[in-house]
Amino acid sequence: MNILGIETSCDETGVAIYHAQQGLLAHRLFSQIGIHQEYGGVVPELASRDHVRKIIPLVRSVIRDAGEPTIGGVAYTAGPGLAGALMVGASVARSIAWAWRVPALAIHHLEGHLLAPLLESRAPRFPFIALLVSGGHTLLVKVATMGHYETLGESVDDAAGEAFDKTAKMLGLPYPGGPELAKLAEQGQPGRFKFPRPMTDRPGLDFSFSGLKTHALTTFAATGGSRQDKADIAVAFQEAVVDTLAIKCRRAIAATGIKTLVIAGGVSANGRIRSRFTELARQDGFEVYYPRPEFCTDNGAMIAFAGCQRFLSGEIQAGSEIRVRPRWSLDQLTKP
């Protein structure tokens, strides 16, 4: 079975084809960074309009890249995300499915991220603990098997990626700020500034990152504002985020007894996160898995894969109504 996957939850248009036995046949991604750069952030209306322009050419290209296979189903991101952007992908996916007389399946965006490491040749086995860390979400999830998820902790305010982006903007770094801040941190002097590790002095697995932004702002205001000052703040901020994530993950592993950790989402491409968790895995005796960097950000491959797994489990969604869910808790997801 070949599944066409479509992802349009925010500012990246992703399309892929996944075969149940052969794996990923083709995938393409168009990022709108250049469009939103002058605004310093994603403009929802512009994102929707660009999805309209790019999605059909990408579908055609991916089908050609895969060798014109027969498509057995279409999977698309139905939420969470920007309502207009989601509607573009859902409308196109449902229309293609209707025209080809194949089933269409609405996929939860976060499930796509959780399962993205399963696309790799070195893939984790169920059960595992997943740290999903992106611009819109930071949460710890116990993954028993496909579709069986239990949220253990989440951010009570800003997601880690959002905090990265906002701190970068305060430091005057270009959009997208998170990768720019990580790059600047490489030039920073560790130890010059000490940032707090929020909510690590109390029990529980929830996160909070908004206070780190405020701490970065007040620290920056007390300096001369040189590039070295910015670099030193960047490294202190990044270390605080990474330490906080590490503390919470170690707690989750200890509480559940599950020795397999998956780190996924856009921020999982951060080099410091990867080096720190690789070191911790060796030290504490657990296994850690990541998607390749191109599958950390939003992409069609993870949606095609998640869709394929749900189709194989026998899930069929009846009806032709086009509906999206901009707010959709992972805990509300149906179990296959």
- Please indicate the percent range of residues in DSSP E strands (runs of 2 or more): 15-25%
Q: What's the architecture of the largest domain, going by CATH?
A: 2-Layer Sandwich
Total count of helical runs of at least 4 residues: 10
Helix/strand class: alpha/beta
**Rounded mean pLDDT score:** 96
CATH class of the largest domain: Alpha Beta
Q: State the separation between the terminal residues, measured CA to CA.
A: 18 Å
Topology order in helix (H) and strand (E) letters? EEEHHEHEHEEEHHHHEHEH
CATH superfamily of the largest domain: ATPase, nucleotide binding domain
Count of discrete structural domains: 2
| Shape field | globular
What does this entry look like structurally?
This protein is an alpha/beta fold and about 325 residues long. Helix content is about 40%, strand content about 20%. The strands form two sheets. A five-stranded mixed β-sheet has the order 3-2-1-4-5, with helices on both faces. A five-stranded mixed β-sheet has the order 8-7-6-9-10, sandwiched between helices. Helix 5 packs across helix 6 and helix 7 runs antiparallel to helix 8. The protein starts with a strand and ends in a 24-residue tail after the last helix. The model has no long low-confidence stretch (mean pLDDT about 95).
